[in-house]
Automatic annotation (TrEMBL):
One of its GO terms (molecular function) is exodeoxyribonuclease VII activity. Bidirectionally degrades single-stranded DNA into large acid-insoluble oligonucleotides, which are then degraded further into small acid-soluble oligonucleotides. It is found in: Cytoplasm. This is Exodeoxyribonuclease 7 large subunit. Residues 124-342 form the Exonuclease VII large subunit C-terminal domain. Heterooligomer composed of large and small subunits. GO terms for cellular component: cytoplasm; exodeoxyribonuclease VII complex. It catalyses: Exonucleolytic cleavage in either 5'- to 3'- or 3'- to 5'-direction to yield nucleoside 5'-phosphates.
Length: 407
């Protein structure tokens, strides 16, 4: 039997001792990050956790790195939950990290900035996706703690401004580990109400740590995917949360959220009364103007002495009738004169008129002879004169008027 350890046996034995230690198997530790390096191929994160006097090697495997809500950086102070084990090949112990959170305000601010940028790139703060807050909401959902001063302020303002509004309260924790889940569930449950017009989510002021529930990605997503418009009212006027960027409208305080959610009925009533008075005055002015116009019309001669106007119109009508008859008669005479002239001219051009003056018309085969070239010797011709037709046979023909060139 060997009376010595191998190096591997020693490391394994120490590792068993560490694994069986209840404290070292699951604990929280605070320290500053150093030598942070994320290996792209494996996805594992390696770093050294240190304080003023000591340091310890640490590793966070890929499956845990995926759950990080911020980007670890050198010099950042963090809280880590994990366990201790020995890396057998090198015989050194290291912390295997299960969970990591920023520690202190500096770490929280950095965490929030990184988360804000991540959510912005995913589109959860897109202005184009924001919904319009209705002007006259009838039913309003409120997500907050049922015992909070913020809820009392919201209810007071809502009832003062519009006593007719219906309010549905969705109770939720506003800080603590379960708060993000409860806030997100409350928003989702309110979306099941078909007649809900607006959702107010918020709480009173507090420290940055107190408001962290409203900086949760769960709550931001619930607001973004809400079909009902959401008004965010977290903390005081100077407080900002990631909910404010995701909401359709941001209110500086819960009181202002209630003011933005519903109009003031007293103001509306006053405005309606003023509008009613202006309408009445406008109608009265219109009636008065119409009465004056009617009075001016009644003073016209058509109403005072209608017979005079009728007689004058009759005279004008008779005169127009006379002028129309004269114009028609003159036009008829002119047209008749032109017709006579045209008939005379047409008659003068008549072949019969030519025959009366001693001329004749020679016809061959029912066609008028216009040239000597058209006839030949022995052709039968009909010669039309004033009082009949002469039948003739061509015995010869000559060209010209002087009898020359006989055939």
């Amino acid at each position: 039997m060997n009376d010595y350890f191998s190096v591997s046996d020693l490391n394994k034995h120490i590792n068993k001792l560490l694994e069986n230690d209840l404290i070292l198997s699951d604990f929280w530790i605070k320290g500053e990050l150093s030598g942070v390096k994320l290996y792209q191929q494996s996805g594992h994160l390696y770093f050294t956790l240190k304080d003023k006097y000591s340091s310890v090697s640490s590793v966070m495997f890929k499956s845990r790195v995926r759950n990080l809500k911020f980007e670890p950086e050198n010099g950042m102070e963090v809280l880590i939950r994990g366990y201790v084990s020995v890396y057998n090949k090198q015989g050194r112990y290291q912390i295997y990290v299960e969970e990591m959170q920023p520690y202190g305000k500096g770490g929280l601010f950095l965490y929030l900035e990184q988360l804000k940028e991540d959510l912005r790139q995913k589109g959860y703060f897109n202005e184009k996706a924001k919904k319009q807050i209705p002007k006259f909401a009838k039913t309003i959902g409120v997500v907050t703690s049922q015992d909070s001063a913020a809820l009392r302020d919201i209810l007071k303002v809502l009832k003062e401004r519009n006593y007719l509004v219906h309010i549905i309260i969705a109770h939720s924790s506003v800080q603590g580990e379960e708060a993000p889940y409860e806030l997100a569930c409350a928003i989702k449950n309110l979306n099941k109400y078909q007649n809900l017009d607006v959702i107010i989510i918020g709480r009173g002021g507090g420290s940055l740590e107190d408001l962290m529930a409203f900086n949760s990605e769960k709550v931001v997503k619930a607001i973004y995917y809400s079909k009902i418009p959401v008004i965010s009212a977290v903390g005081h006027e100077t407080d900002f949360s990631l909910c404010d960027f995701a909401a359709d409208l941001r209110a500086a305080t819960p009181t202002q959220a209630a003011q933005l959610a519903v109009p003031d009925l007293n103001i509306i009533k006053s405005e309606l009364e003023n509008i009613n008075k202006r309408i009445v005055r406008s109608i009265e002015r219109k009636i008065s103007n119409n009465i004056e116009f009617f009075d001016r019309i009644m003073l016209k001669r058509v109403w005072t002495t209608p017979e005079v106007m009728i007689n004058q119109y009759n005279k004008n009508l008779i005169d127009l009738q006379r002028r129309l008859i004269k114009s028609f008669s003159d036009l008829t005479k002119d047209k008749h004169h032109k017709l006579v002239n045209l008939s005379t001219s047409l008659d003068n051009l008549s072949p019969l008129k030519i025959l009366n003056r001693g001329y004749s018309i020679t016809v061959k085969d029912e066609e008028i002879v216009k040239s000597i070239e058209f006839i030949n010797e022995k052709d039968n011709l009909n010669i039309k004169v004033q009082d009949g037709i002469i039948e003739a046979i061509v015995t010869g023909k000559e060209y010209g008027l002087n009898g020359k060139n006989k055939l």
